[in-house]
Amino acid sequence: MSRPDLAAMMAPIGRALVALERPILQEHQLSMWAYAVLSSLDDEPVRTQAALAEAIGADKTRLIAVLDQLQADGLIERRPAPDDRRARVLSITAEGRRVRDAVQAAIRREEEQLLAVLPAAQRDAFVAALQALHAAVRPT
């Protein structure tokens, strides 16, 4: 049986997910990039700005403004790297974790409404498949 290309099926889903996240991020005064930073810092509590930019697929020169805002809002800390004072080491603050967790919980509630069109077993399989695909294409 014929089916659309994966990209043709994923693109509208991606747009729908971005649309459901946008008001949640606005409510918490975060950009998509700011949320990506906060989410990434949870994976590794401390990393350099360059490594962070690479991990989230951001241009490191454009990321600086996002990091400046997150720091000004008290959501992250930046300090010189002990082995290279030109590099900055990033860490998420307690307030950053609180905001990230609140945003993630709200996003997950919205995602669950979208996933509710699938039976529970298909939901679990779909999420597991996305996690496997994400791991396969994620830059290392």
Automatic annotation (TrEMBL):
It comes from the Bacteria. SUPFAM superfamilies: Winged helix' DNA-binding domain. This is MarR family transcriptional regulator. Residues 3-135 form the HTH marR-type domain. Coiled coil: none annotated.
